[in-house]
Write a structure and sequence with these properties.
By secondary structure, the protein is an alpha/beta fold. The chain is built from eleven helices and twelve strands. Strands 2, 3, 4, 11 and 12 form a five-stranded parallel β-sheet that branches. The protein has a three-stranded antiparallel β-sheet with strand order 1-7-8, with helices on both faces. Strands 5-6 form a two-stranded parallel sheet.
Length: about 280
């Protein structure tokens, strides 16, 4: 159930708040789907490309524009690519919890769901020296069991649901959490992902950019928050990083945007509307 919240006043009288978020799934994006991927070296190499080449391109672009993003990272990625994850954190970006082996919570039992939370927390805390404030579920599927775990472990916010197009409170079975919602149309995966098993589509980048800019214009009219979700192995391809570059430049030129991490948005919303509720 979604409980709406009044929109806060964004800093510097901005008309819209924008969060650039990145899911750094790397190899476990596939290994979490099936152990059979352990033998599929080509598929795993595409996941690894996200860390090897895509991530540096993203970090360079964000640094060029003096922007901070939120990077949702599975525990397995933090263990396999510890140095890369530490670079993300050391340059001032937010790190969020994205499970451990990127297991979809609706496809595993309650015990495995708890392991995903606990092992992911341990791996990220070991890598970074602190626990993440926010959580995003694998493939944006959230079950009652994992929802209860987020409350149990004290996460400040979640970014997995789609019950509104602005920050709201997601409620289930007496529990609640601040939600920073997502949507498939604002994710690079549906437009650009292609696999040898399921196929997919390779959309014209201009079409993607036009869609994302249209959402920004809508958010500006509503004075709300919008989250864009990307994956380093997808958006980090040479010609696709230009989609992100053009998005950033167009939004910045509007003079109406506050670029913020999810933690910053959650803190502002909580300060104005959630504290004490």
């Amino acid at each position: 159930m979604a409980r709406p919240l009044p929109l806060p006043n964004w800093p510097n009288d901005a008309a819209v708040a924008v969060s650039l978020t990145f899911d750094v799934d790397a190899e476990c994006g596939w290994l979490g789907e099936s152990s059979s991927y352990a033998r599929r070296l080509t598929t795993l190499s595409e996941g690894r490309f996200g860390v090897t080449r895509g991530l540096p391109r993203i970090l360079d672009l964000l640094e060029e524009h003096d922007l901070k993003g939120t990077f949702y990272i599975p525990g397995d990625t933090a263990q396999r690519h510890t140095d890369a994850v530490r670079v993300i954190a050391s340059t001032g970006h937010e790190i969020g919890h994205h499970g451990h082996m990127h297991l979809r919570s609706d496809k595993v039992d309650a015990f495995a769901q708890r392991e995903e939370i606990e092992q992911g927390l341990e791996a990220l805390s070991t890598c970074l020296g602190q626990a993440p404030a926010g959580y995003r579920s694998a493939s944006w599927e959230l079950t009652p069991e994992t929802f209860a775990l987020l409350v149990e472990f004290g996460f400040a916010y979640d970014s997995s649901c789609m019950g509104d197009d602005r920050p709201y409170v997601e409620e289930h079975d007496g529990n609640s959490i601040l939600e920073l919602p997502v949507h498939w149309s604002l994710d690079d995966w549906p437009y650009f992902a292609w696999t040898i098993d399921a196929g997919g589509q390779l959309t014209d980048p201009d079409t993607v950019l036009a869609t994302w800019l249209a959402e920004f214009e809508s958010a500006k009219r509503d004075r709300r928050h919008v989250t864009y979700t990307m994956h380093p192995e997808i958006i980090g391809r040479g010609y696709r990083i230009d989609v992100l570059r053009r998005l950033i430049e167009t939004l910045a030129a509007s003079g109406s945007v506050w670029f913020a991490t999810h933690a910053q948005v959650a803190e502002l919303v909580r300060t104005e509307h959630v504290a004490g509720t």
